[in-house]
């Protein structure tokens, strides 16, 4: 964030906002924080704990989206970047505190007696895990396409760019509820059923939104729908990985799935821009984002 705030040209922005923030996101992803949560709760409440962690991240989205929009409109992008430099420092103590969870399981057996090599081999042969990782790719395409290109799409449709901040705020707010809800449900019912349902309903919401010109009402309803269907996948995916492979390699195996998600994120951001530059609109990109989710209901194996 500091490199981005002080950038005097494109190389510093690419290094700061692209390379270093990308590395930082991988170090603080849900696979890391969920592993901490899993070590301090009883097994029957792990999926709920994953949902609570995901919901906490949504609180940050809900609070920082309007802050960023206000600073961008009143003080400029550099002031907004400096504000997030200060926010980044607030996360440093949490890293040291969270690392204490590693000592809570010393000398105890894991839920599933696997070595790393055995876990990777089992994951490679597990049809459900492979489909789940592939589904995460499309999840990344959909979500990052929206966060990257929604402001431009709304502006091209003649709407105030501030509505993009409204959407992100609504997504953050409803993420809080949905993350907790799907975490709670995941401890009681098969996770795979809800995971497939989320992907299908998200594709329906995308298709309906891009099928018609946006209005203030449709933008608000879209933000509510996407918030409900956004991060609810995180506790379900983490819960499935623990059920299949156990706790010990949770971060490794969810990290592999998240790698697929990030490759999809790249495609969503770059591909959306490429399609817009080539065709002059986001219509085809919106259709691709909605069509891509129909095959994502994971198998029950």
Description of the molecule:
The protein is an all-alpha fold and 301 residues long. 78% of the residues lie in helices and 0% in strands. It has 13 helices and no strands. The protein has helices at 2-5, 10-27, 30-39, 46-74, 77-98, 116-125, 127-156, 162-186, 191-211, 216-228, 233-245, 250-279, 283-291. Helix 4 runs antiparallel to helix 5 (77-98), helix 8 (162-186) packs parallel to helix 10 and helix 9 packs antiparallel against helix 11. The radius of gyration is 20 Å and the shape is globular. The model is unreliable at 295-301 (pLDDT under 50).
Keywords for this structure?
13 helices, disordered C terminus
Strand content: under 5%
Q: Give Rg in angstroms.
A: 20 Å
H/E element string?
A: HHHHHHHHHHHHH
Calculate the mean pLDDT score and round it.
Answer: 81
The tally of helices reads 13
* Biggest beta-sheet profile: none
Question: Outline, from the CA principal axes?
Answer: globular
Distance between the termini: 43 Å
**Which runs of at least 5 residues are low in confidence (pLDDT < 50)?**
295-301
* Helix fraction by DSSP (H/I, runs of at least 4): over 70%
The count of strands amounts to 0
The structural class is mainly alpha
């Amino acid at each position: 964030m500091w490199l981005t705030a002080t950038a005097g040209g494109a190389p510093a922005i690419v290094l700061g906002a692209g390379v270093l923030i990308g590395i930082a996101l991988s170090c603080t992803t849900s696979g890391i924080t969920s592993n901490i949560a899993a070590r301090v709760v009883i097994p029957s409440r792990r999926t709920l704990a994953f949902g609570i962690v995901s919901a906490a991240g949504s609180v940050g989205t809900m609070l920082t989206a309007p802050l960023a929009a206000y600073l961008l409109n009143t003080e400029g992008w550099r002031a907004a970047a400096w504000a997030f430099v200060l926010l980044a420092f607030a996360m440093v103590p949490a890293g040291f505190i969270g690392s204490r969870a590693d000592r809570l399981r010393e000398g105890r057996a894991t839920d599933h007696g696997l070595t790393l090599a055995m876990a990777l081999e089992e994951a490679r042969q597990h049809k459900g895990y492979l489909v789940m990782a592939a589904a995460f790719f499309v999840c990344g395409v959909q979500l990052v396409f929206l966060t990257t290109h929604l402001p431009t799409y709304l502006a091209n449709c003649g709407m105030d760019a501030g509505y993009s901040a409204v959407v992100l705020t609504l997504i953050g707010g409803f993420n809080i509820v949905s993350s907790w809800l799907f975490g709670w449900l995941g401890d009681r019912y098969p996770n795979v059923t809800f995971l497939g349902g989320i992907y299908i309903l998200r594709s329906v919401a995308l298709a309906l939104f891009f099928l018609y010109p946006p209005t203030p009402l449709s933008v608000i309803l879209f933000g509510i729908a996407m918030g409900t269907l956004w991060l609810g996948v995180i506790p379900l995916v983490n819960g499935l990985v623990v059920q299949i492979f156990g706790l010990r390699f949770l971060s490794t195996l969810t990290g592999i799935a998240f790698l697929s998600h990030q490759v999809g994120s790249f495609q969503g951001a770059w591909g959306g821009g490429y399609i817009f530059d080539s065709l002059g609109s986001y219509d085809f990109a919106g259709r691709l984002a909605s069509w891509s989710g129909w095959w994502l209901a994971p198998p029950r194996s």
